[in-house]
Amino acid sequence: MLVKAIVLVVVALLFAARAWSGGFSGNVSLSPAEVFQGGVVRITVLGEEVAEVSGFLTDRSIAFFPEAGGSYWALLGVDLEHKRGRLAITIRGRGKGKEPWDRSLLLRVKEKAFPREELTVPPSFDRIDEATRKRIEREQAALDWLWALATPRRLWEGGFLRPVSGGVTSPFGLRRIINGYSRSPHGGVDLKASLGSEIRAANHGQVVLRDDFYFSGKSIVLDHGAGLYTMYFHLSDFAVEKDVVVRKGDVIGRAGMSGRVTGPHLHWGARLNGARVDPHELLEAGNARP
Ligand SMILES: [Zn+2]
I want to staple 53 with a disulfide (CB 3.0 to 4.6 A). Which of 64, 95, 154, 192 is the partner? Predict the structure, then answer.
């Protein structure tokens, strides 16, 4: 019964996609065609008659950029806790002097076997007083407010750089179980960085947050535009002021152990269209070109 219903839905979607295409003869491709939780997908729209393209998820828009040769491209992030299954994407375009068209796509999201770590700590380790709880909520709200915004202009160019040369000490998506309770998964990667070592901007962007937070310590968030952000936590020092625009490779701060950490390292994170993605996905020059 369920299978039958799914088949009917798929057939209906296929018909709908054809009906909406409004004579569009272009080609929409996803690379990779299937994605793991926390991954990044490149969407390319090719076609001579394409003059304008936009994209939508259920609750967000996807920014498309024109490329030489008349094609358009976008990067789409899939959150590390996105449920496995299909992610519906709508692409809307307008041809030169033609009717607008809509394309509906279903991206397959695959479950990733993130590593797990079980820890036992004294209960006092976790005790948080009311004032601290309020502070944590305020800081969380400040970050969530950033992710909800998508500066329309894209500042980043080409592939992203690693902000420090050190290797991964705690992987992206790590599930921590502390005293038997699951915590929120690790939303970034921890990179080895000695106290005071230079931290570089992974790409061009604007410093939209420069603050000292309870968990993340001295923190910097760069807005690369078009809904893409990278973050740098637990610094010992800032090397930039808030609101300035930095270039790829500029030193933005120095590594440290501020916030709730046990030793110096850099926590490096990325958000794309609100989704927590593995920042390593941005290193692929192919993903973030031109
Ligand atoms: Zn971390």
Answer: 64
Q: Would you place residue 56 in the very low, low, confident or very high pLDDT band (cuts 50, 70, 90)? A: confident
Neighbours of ion ligand 1 (CB under 5 A): 190, 267
Chain centroid to CA 68: how far? Answer: 25
Reduce the DSSP state of residue 13 to 3 states and report it: helix
In order of their start, the domains of the chain are 2-110 (2.60.40.2470), 116-288 (2.70.70.10)
Q: What share of the chain is helix, strand, coil (3-state, %, to 5)?
A: 15, 40, 40
Helix (H, G, I), strand (E, B) or coil at 180: coil
Mean pLDDT of 8-33: 60
CA-CA-CA-CA torsion sign (109, 115, 116, 121): negative
Residue 4 Cα to ligand 1 middle (Å): 44
Q: What b/e sequence results for 179-195 when a residue is b if at least 16 CB atoms lie within 10 Å of its CB, and e otherwise?
A: eeeeeebbbbbbbbbee
State the distance from the centre of ligand 1 to the C-alpha of 137, rounded, in angstroms: 19
189 CA to middle of ligand 1, Å? 5
For ligand 1, the distance from its centroid to the CA atom of residue 267, given in whole angstroms, is: 4
Q: How much is the pTM?
A: 0.87
